[in-house]
Amino acid sequence: MEKNDFRSKIYAKIDELPSLPTVIHQIMSVMEDPRTSAQDIRDIIAHDAPLTAKILKVANSAYYGFPHEISELERAIALLGFNMVKTLAISVGIINSMPNTTEQTGFSVQQLWIHSLAVGTGMKMFAEKGNRREDAGSLFISGLLHDIGKMVLNLFFPDHFARVLKNNEKDEGLFFYQKERETIGVDHGEIGAMLLERWKLPYDITDTVAFHHKPNIPEHINGSNVSILRLADAISYELDMGDSASTCLPPTEEADMEQSGINSAILEEVKQGLDEKREGLIAFFEAMM
User: Fold this and answer.
1) Would 1 be classed as within a structural domain?
2) CA–CA distance from 230 to each of 202, 246, 276 (Å)?
3) Is there a contact between 237 and 249 (Cβ–Cβ < 8 Å)?
4) Do 78 and 197 have their domain in common?
5) Range of 57's domain?
6) Over the stretch 175-212, which tens digit does the pLDDT of each residue have?
7) Residue 96: what pLDDT?
8) Is 2's pLDDT higher than 60?
């Protein structure tokens, strides 16, 4: 199948997915407004009772480890900060917008989400330790969604995805994205970006997902965000947190450390902190589903 033909089929299938809930678009629309207050976010989220319940469930999970139960949205915002609550709301909304798939390819969607949560958490930690705290939310979402293209393939093109998985098992010398390009002509980063564009997510998130397996990053793309994603992905693999079906593990590249301003001390701190979150990541996933 020609690459352009397959891309057209992907776009057609993506259009079959439901749009993101209105509340998620409302939250995203105020993310860029510096005048947005915690009360504004609370008022938007509070109108969606199921979303509020899941945010509180995540806030009470082992991922955060608060000693007392959080029973009100206002309290969650006070403890987590309204930027993190915004991030949680968007994350929960997106995860629950993806259909529960039958794992007909033998691919574990649950393990992929746990891996993705690990990458998102690692990116958030890098932001907090690298003086980019204001970007922690968008970087977390980028990490959470970086492999969502694999879910699109598993959901809509199980035969093609099964071929990629089979070819991946035969040759451990190539990365998974290379096997995708070799088998179907595109990689999961490109496919994920197609979905995120359709869902109208911010460009900094969509671009980071689209280019995280590209060797050359155009000047208009935030290369630091892409490098932080690659570093978080690499240490998540190294720590064996979840499973994204890759048999060839990505290395920690010096070029990504230089591009992102992450030194070896910060890298080790994040690796240790992420390892300590192992059980909490599973609790986070279970709370969101």
Assistant:
1) no
2) 19, 14, 20
3) yes
4) no
5) 18-97
6) 889 999 988 999 999 999 999 999 999 999 999 999 99
7) 85
8) no
Q: Do both 64 and 144 map to the same domain? A: no
3-state DSSP assignment of residue 256: helix
- Give this prediction's pTM: 0.93
Q: Tell the residue number behind the tokens 């609790």, with chain if given.
A: 283
Residue type, 110: Q
What token pair was written down for 197? Answer: 């564009």
pLDDT band at 1 (very low <50, low <70, confident <90, very high): low
* CATH number reported for the structural domain that contains residue 120 in this entry: 1.10.3210.10
Confidence band of 139 (pLDDT split at 50, 70, 90): very high
Which tens digit of pLDDT belongs to each residue from 112-133?
Answer: 999 999 999 999 999 999 889 8
8 Å CB contact between 232 and 244 = no
Q: Dihedrals φ, ψ of 47, to 5°?
A: -75, -10
Residue 4 lies in a domain: no
Domain count, the chain: 2
Distances (CA, A) of 197 to 193, 207, 250: 6, 9, 26
Which two three-digit tokens encode residue 212?
A: 């995280």
| Same domain for 155 and 261 | yes
Residues with Cβ within 8 Å of 260's Cβ and at least 6 positions away in sequence, in order, are 126, 130, 224, 227, 228, 231
